Amino acid sequence: MKKNLFTPLCYFAFLLLVSCGGNNTDSNVTAPGAEKNPKSKVMEAGSDLLQKKSPISKINMYLDGFHFYNGNLQGQMEAHHYVTQVNEDLHQALMYDGNGPNAKLMGVEYIISERLFKKLPLEERKLWHSHSYEVKSGELIAPGIPDVAEHELMEKLVSTYGKVIHTWHTDRDLELPLGSPMIMMGFTKDGQLKKELIADRDKRFGVSTADKRKQRADIPMPQVVQGANAWEKGEVRQLQITNKYEAPEHQH
């Protein structure tokens, strides 16, 4: 069979003219504070025109998925990832609690290839989670792009690993970011993610996670590298606020 010449790159160019799958998820947070005054709006508009925002301009991918607090499988939430591909082995994402103009920044995720993950010390690996189940199950989606392009993207992401830190716990801190940042994990088996979260997400985006799973059946399921998803073995690593500073071991 002759390969389709309308490649995902062509699809991405086409997407400049169509919807990008945003503005359908409101922020879960109502932050206190006065409305922007006219002076602030003028300064904001001027800065928007005059200042370069090179790092942000490199964001070239939007993913939607779900996380839970490492050590608390019931603490679940949706995360909207705005991703920059740094190189073929590293992506970095800013994460928000929505995809509209009032979305709140909730954390960051670093995504690395299996090749880089295998180079990490075993203790470091315990902070990371695999993406294989998220991809194969259909939980992870790339809103707004055609199925063919999304499939090719998922073929690449299926063998990657993510390190996620949430700085604003928007499922419970509904006004301001409080407490310690938290290490998050990704789901690894059916029945872990709350059905109502999936149903709500699918309705907003007009997609079917079940159909996504079927579409990705041909993507090989990679074997998870030792050390990832350590929470499954009861080895939970979490951040906490302390009254003294201890330098990381690699800095000694």
Mean pLDDT: 90
The N- and C-terminal alpha carbons lie at a distance of 58 Å
* Number of helical elements: 9
Shape: globular
Q: Which stretches of 5+ consecutive residues score pLDDT under 50?
A: 1-6
β-sheet strand percentage? 15-25%
**What is the radius of gyration computed over CA atoms, rounded to a whole number of angstroms?**
19 Å
Sheet with most strands: 6 strands, antiparallel, barrel
SSE series = HHHEEEEHHEHHEEHH
How many strands?
A: 7
Q: Name the strands of the widest sheet in spatial order.
A: 1-2-3-4-6-7
Count of folded domains: 1
* Residues in helix, %: 25-40%
Structure class: alpha+beta
Could you walk me through the main structural features you see in this protein, from its secondary elements to its overall organization?
With 252 residues, the chain is an alpha+beta fold. It has one domain. The protein contains 9 helices and 7 strands, in the order αααββββααβααββαα. The chain has helices spanning 8-14, 38-50, 54-57, 114-117, 122-125, 132-137, 147-157, 195-205, 209-215, and strands at residues 61-69, 72-87, 90-96, 105-112, 129-130, 161-166, 182-185. A 6-stranded antiparallel barrel has the order 1-2-3-4-6-7. Strand 1 (61-69) and strand 2 (72-87) form a beta hairpin.
Blueprint of the fold:
Elements: H1 8-14, H2 38-50, H3 54-57, E1 61-69, E2 72-87, E3 90-96, E4 105-112, H4 114-117, H5 122-125, E5 129-130, H6 132-137, H7 147-157, E6 161-166, E7 182-185, H8 195-205, H9 209-215
Antiparallel strand pairs: 1-2, 1-7, 2-3, 3-4, 4-6, 5-6, 6-7
